[in-house]
Amino acid sequence: MPGKGGTFETRSPVDESLIAPVALGTAADIDAAAQAAKSAFPAWAAMAGDRRKAILHKIADLIEERATEIALCECWDTGQAWRFMSKAALRGAENFRYFADLAPSARDGKSLPTRTHWNVTTRVPIGPVGVITPWNTPFMLSTWKIAPALAAGCTVVHKPAEFSPLSARLLAEICHEAGLPPGVLNLVNGFGEGAGRALTEHPDIKAIAFVGESRTGSMIMRQGSETLKRVHFELGGKNPCIVFEDADLDRALDAAIFMIYSLNGERCTSASRLLVQDSIADNFHDMLVMRINRIKVGHPLDPRTEIGPLIHQTHFDKVTDYVAIGKADGATLAAGGARVGDAGWFIRPTLFTDATPNMRIAQEEVFGPFLTSIRFKDDSEALEIANGVVYGLTGYVWTNDMSRALRFSEKLEAGMIWVNSENVRHLPTPFGGVKASGIGRDGGDWSFDFYMETKNTSFALGQHNIQRLGA
């Protein structure tokens, strides 16, 4: 129900039609949610891990039951194609199941004995946490943050992105139906400058997990500094896909296309820079253009659609501005770049070739179906280009020389690297970036490092000598 803040509208990027009015959360709403999370925290933190496990598995069950509804909501609210969103909801269930199974062992520590003392470590949940999620694949990314927080024993205040707020309501309903106690998960919609800032500054919120732009991450860090908040950031990327002349070019082509044009290119791990070796560049570009021109742009609920509309006019304008920037900088527009239709925010998948590393389209995150290709001569030049941006989230290396792959990956400035593969997530592995791409890691036990505090208790063994002062 709308509070004193009134409402804002969420509109579909498909045809700009009104979907629903959404409550505009205020600082007072954030405070109420934080107080609820604080009150619910002691009991939730003290609950046995196997009981939390059962509740989280029930949430996963209900996500699977409502997967079609969730996917339809995501398609209409975000513009993402059905072929991807139909799987994203199930990935949300997978996230809950994985961390549910870890809940009973979340507090486990280590035994670290010495000759005179027995040291025992354990972990305890940090307290109420804030989770701020983005507008691209919002349901899956919400579960990626909220599931480990709940498994750890934390309570949560969730503020979803204002451009795609609807699926967060479905997750809240599911959690309530699954028996999650009142106050453990609290949802407040709103804008970053209002509800978002109130959340990052609230003294009862002990940590902020955020997925979004690097610039916003730095703002959140400043806002949380007065209360010494712990932060976990998954931020932007300008990720390279490096194709060497000895690569399996057919597979590399498939992966390069998938990792920039799937999910409308609106993903932090998209391979938005193609680095291709000189000797194969012309042939690779010819194959690339032919495939790009076949990509189906259309209504997200059409099962044939591969690219739907961009999220919002503001973002559409940003992406089309980069088309003009690329032309002005002297790169070659080899494919796409044009709007599709008159209604909604559709654009043809775009490729610029003949780019140089210092061009804006090679340095700045566009976050759309927009690929910039740069040629390189040898390993050394490829590494210099790949590392020559402020970001460091992922990298994709294509070569059949495993010695080269190991050497190159060791020096590539990225938190995650895939060799001869597209982005394939394995939940126990660490997920996160370096440089302007983030702070901290998600996945497996790394998630608990953020949502929990580690304490050490030291027991004296026998009658060891203690220094005596003033005896």
Quick synopsis:
This protein is α/β, with parallel strands linked by helices and 471 residues long.
Structure overview:
- With 471 residues, this protein is an alpha/beta fold.
- The protein folds into two domains: 7-235 and 437-457, 3-Layer(aba) Sandwich (Aldehyde Dehydrogenase, Chain A, domain 1); 240-419, 3-Layer(aba) Sandwich (Aldehyde Dehydrogenase, Chain A, domain 2), CATH 3.40.309.10.
- 41% of the residues lie in helices and 20% in strands.
- The chain has 15 helices and 20 strands.
- The strands form five sheets. It has a seven-stranded mixed beta sheet with strand order 12-13-14-11-10-16-17, with helices on both faces. Strands 7-6-5-8-9-19 form a six-stranded mixed beta sheet, sandwiched between helices.
- Helix 5 links the parallel strand 5 and strand 6.
- It is globular, with a radius of gyration of 24 Å.
Task: Itemize the secondary structure elements and their pairings.
Layout: E1 7-11, E2 18-23, H1 27-46, H2 49-65, H3 67-78, H4 82-102, E3 111-113, E4 117-125, E5 129-132, H5 138-152, E6 156-159, H6 166-177, E7 185-187, H7 192-201, E8 207-211, H8 214-224, E9 230-234, E10 240-243, H9 249-261, E11 273-277, H10 278-292, H11 313-329, E12 332-335, E13 350-353, H12 360-363, E14 370-376, H13 379-387, E15 391-392, E16 394-398, H14 402-411, E17 416-419, E18 434-435, E19 438-439, H15 444-451, E20 452-460
Parallel strand pairs: 5-6, 5-8, 6-7, 8-9, 10-11, 10-16, 11-14, 13-14, 16-17
Antiparallel strand pairs: 1-2, 3-4, 4-20, 9-19, 12-13, 15-18
